[in-house]
Amino acid sequence: MLGLNKKDTSLLIIVALLTLLAPFILNPFPEGSAMAQFNAGYPDLMQRFVIFGIFAIGFNILFGLTGYLSFGHAAFLGVGSYSAVWMFKLLSYNVIPAIALSVVVAGLFSLLIGFVSLRRSGIYFSILTLAFAQMSFALAYSVLSNPKFNLTNGETGLQVYADDPQILQGANAPDLPHLFGLPMRATYTMDLGAWSFDFNAGYYLCAVILMVVFYLAIRIFRSPFGMMLRAVKSNQQRMNYTGLNSKPYTLAAFVISGMYAGLAGGLMAAMDPLAGAERMQWTASGEVVLMTILGGTGTLIGPVLGAGFIKYFENIFSKINDNVLHSWFAFLPDGLEDAVVFLIHPFIGKGWHLTLGILFMLVVIYLPGGLVEGGQRLLNWFKRKKTKSDDAPSGKTEPAE
Amino acid sequence: MDAILLQILNGLDKGSAYALIALGLTLIFGTLGVVNFAHGALFMIGAFCAVTLQKLLNLSFETLDETQKDFLGNPLKVETPYVEAWFGPEVGATIIDWSVPLAILFAIPIMLLVGYVMERGLIKHFYKRPHADQILVTFGLAIVLQEIVKYFFGANPIQTPPPDALSGSVDLGVMVGFDPNAIIYPIWRLVYFGFAVGIIGAVFSFLQFTTFGMVVRAGMADRETVGLLGINIDRRFTIMFGIAAAVAGLAGVMYGPLNPPNYHMGMDFLVLSFVVVVVGGMGSLPGAVLAGFLLGILESFASTTWATTTIPGINQIIIYLVAIVVLLTRPRGLMGRKGVMEE
Amino acid sequence: MAILRVKDVSKRFGGLKALSDVTLSVEENSVHAIIGPNGAGKSTLLNCLVGKLMPDTGSVLFDNNSVLGLEPFQINQMGISRVFQTPEIFGELTVMENMLIPIFAMRDGAFRMHAYETIANEKAVVEQAEAMLEEMNMADKREMHAASLSRGDKRRLEIGMCLSQNPRLLLLDEPTAGMARADTNNTIDLLKQIKEERDITIAIIEHDMHVVFSLAERITVLAQGTPLVEDIPENIRGNPKVREAYLGEAA
User: Fold this and answer.
1) Helices marked H in chain C — which ranges?
2) How many domains are contained in chain C?
């Protein structure tokens, strides 16, 4: 189907089902029940899942395939957001031109930064991208927000004001980001018994875009171009002596991943018409690295899983507090209960980042292939238990799953 | 002339911090070949050593002073720090006042231990892994360390004042013949600069004049050959990692009075220190120190009103701009060796 | 006709003169060996031919076109393929992918953004790669990761990758260095077979006399950065100058 082999087609279908049915899947617990706090099926969070999924898929095209570790991709995300908001300010609240411009501008910006950064490789490349991103952050935060030339509106963040031109904004169009009149905030809530499910227009726009860009990523992975990118990671010397110029390949991967980041930034602005400099900070770049590694570098589904995983637990973990813990461990004797809660306390709520850091280290140390490798190992283990044969193939993981 | 001198002086404190962190980074990179993204966290831990000592010294017990009454007519509660009780009020107060310099003694063993544990427990397993993995795992460690500190000390900056005798400013201009008030300079900045110079001097002479240092320098130049000579280079490198950690930590201890420590100060300095290392030349110790001071001073010049009105925000991007230009025109940095880190 | 002409090439590293006025030419469709004791400048010469090093003076003409100042990939596109001392292959990729890459490179040039095509649909390229694997007796290993191959198989794969591009000149840099006798003999047989079946020029840099005398039609002896003699193998064997150069090394 669609020029994919059977395995990739089923992967695409799985992702499609997961995203389309997310409002159900993420809200398994009835409204008002004790477990309802683990529901993640509300529009804002679902949008973040998908948007960061797109960001990570793109980042993986660069890092996963070519091995070039960029520490500055948040800059492209930020640029995408700014471009989108400018489109809202100048043209109209329709999200299509906004998203289109964010992809184009991020592409051009990444072409410029990539061209310079890719003159060096290895750790130098990482530091160059880091320096560029921090510079972009500083530019957005202060340099480009002076009264004479205000491109970013500095600390306040760029937003749409009543006196903005919005030359194409029709009289009846919603005064919020919309898709040809359908507001992104429009949500239809379906009540089924004790359950309630939210279907949000903005989420579905993001979901459709995710499926398209995921499909494109599969095509890239399976293309001769994708193979060349893996060759860059594997052995640049052999590549050069095989008549291939590795520079344009790497630059193309850099620009593609920059455009994915710009798209993610544009979608962020489309969901909430605001763009701030903090989106460009290097910790934000670190986050996408984390998602990719955690999910599984160089795999197709990994980055999506990683993004979902991190955003889900960020949300849930930060909501758990001591009271919740006490209610969980109420079955324990009082002293023990307090001790357990005391021990867990640093890792929840505001301590989410601590958990994240530890998790990240554990993954890099013990599971370099991320969640995907973990899943495969589990699968192999089960298979081996079932067949109980010694000659079951194992070990090498597939390069791309 | 005096304005220029003032800006140079203003750049010295930040430059010192950059130089000290970059020195440690370079030591670790040069000896172990590891890119340590957790080095900023070591700087931060150092600063919090001072905070901890200050808190410890201020531990007090309560007594009721019958001679004084609070507004309800009860005896007034008086808090007396233990140190004042043990050493007498005068000596005790002096100890508390000097808590930041005293923290140096407190921090050295702690930082050596932290460095040792970090190298033996984690970094050791990453020598043979790709640089990307080293960056990632130390990045994770940096997050963990800063979150732990945040857990214990909170998110807000904590004041660590310098000793009374070393707070305030001096009129440096008068001493060298300028008009009075032309160059007013905080004393602690001078102390910090002097301290940094001392540490840098100590590290260099240690490497230059001891057998240990000689082996380490030889190892930096060619690890395999030194290994072949039957010298246990790994153990020496572990100690080197501890020393690098201590250098970063001490830089942090003394930095507190200049800028109240917070949990993310390490990350803030780390990015810039990496830029400093790259500008100075990966693997070059003199390069790291030189670039640290140069960039600190450059930043100070870019922060002048004249510069910021000409190009708003130039002070925040100048270092990155310089780094990018240097990397592209002189890929090895100011004093870098050939072939370091180029695959 | 000479396919490769090296004229007056010199190269200095600091105070060390690695090559001085090297002149030699490799005839089309011949097997030409360049031998010499360690430090004679063999590798430096090779690196000057493939664009890795830029000679200080002199010229290098391939098929009457200068290769100086070109990048390795440009020189490869002209028809020179290089086999390395330790096999340089794409370890993380499968054997099949290793074979596909050079064929794509030959067909599409140094860069092409074929990001939307699928490899499986490139029937002609896939068939070519399969045929080459067949020829190298590696068809059964096509899905293996190249890094997991044995040393001998890695060498075969690398030679196969180079041949798949139908190069006019195949450069081999001590192709049997570090190999066991059996693997060495296999490699010699493979190269002989290649020579018989194709119109190809082979230039080989070698230390192992067994390999050299089994293959070479012409031999250039390099010593201290200059060609000492150039002749057919029979004459090289008895040449006192050559013996001196090698004995000098042994002493």
Assistant:
1) 42-49, 72-78, 95-108, 123-135, 151-163, 181-197, 209-215, 233-238, 240-250
2) 1
Nearest Cα neighbor of B316 from A121, A258, A277 is: A277
Average pLDDT over residues B102-114: 92
CA–CA separation, B252 and B256 (whole Å): 7
In a domain, C136, yes or no: no
The string of pLDDT tens digits covering residues A4-63 is: 888 899 999 999 999 999 888 888 888 877 777 778 888 889 999 999 999 999 999 999
Which structural domain range is residue C63 located in? 2-79+167-250
From the list A4, A238, A245, the residue facing C111 with the nearest CB is A245
Candidates C72, C92, C118; nearest CB to A241:
C72
Tell me, yes or no, if C50 comes closer than 8 A to chain A by beta carbon.
yes
Distance CA C37, CA C50 (A): 22
What is the tens place of the pLDDT at every residue in A239-294?
999 999 999 999 999 999 999 999 999 999 999 998 988 888 877 888 899 899 99
Provide, as residue numbers in chain A, all residues whose Cβ is less than 8 Å from the Cβ of C165.
242-243
Q: Is residue C25 part of a domain?
A: yes
Q: How far apart are CA A274 and CA A284, in angstroms?
A: 17
Q: Is residue C184 part of a domain?
A: yes
Whether the Cβ atoms of residue A16 and residue A229 lie closer than 8 Å to each other: no
Residue C116 included in any domain: no
- Are B269 and B37 spatial neighbours (Cβ–Cβ below 8 Å)? no
Nearest to B341 among A122, A144, A360 (CB): A122
Number of domains in chain B: 1
Instruction: State the Cα–Cα distance between residues B97 and B53, nearest whole angstrom.
Output: 11
Residues 6+ apart with CB under 8 A from C220: C24, C32, C33, C34, C35, C227, C229, C230
| Beta bridge mates, A178 | A94, A183
Distance, in Å, from the CA atom of C190 to the CA atom of A94, rounded to the nearest integer, reads: 66
Q: How many angstroms away from the CA of B330 is the closest CA of chain A?
A: 11
**Encoded tokens for A48:** 């973040």
Q: How far is A391 from chain C (nearest CA, A)?
A: 17
Residue B157: inside a domain: yes
Q: Which residue from B272, B269, B298, B296 is spatially nearest to B15, judged by alpha carbons?
A: B296
The residue in chain B having the minimum alpha-carbon distance to the alpha carbon of residue A369 is B133
Q: What is the pTM assigned to this prediction?
A: 0.89
Is B331 close to A122, i.e. CB distance below 8 A?
no
Q: What are phi and psi of A138, to 5 degrees?
A: -65, -40
- Residue A263 has φ and ψ, to the nearest 5°, of -60, -45
Give CA separation, A247 vs A120, A174, C244, in Å: 10, 46, 47
For residues A200 and A232, what is the distance between their CA atoms, to the nearest angstrom? 41
CA dihedral for B250, B253, B254, B260, sign (positive or negative) = positive
pLDDT of residue C247: 62
Domains with residue ranges and CATH for chain A: 6-289 (1.10.3470)
Domain that holds residue B250: 2-57+103-329
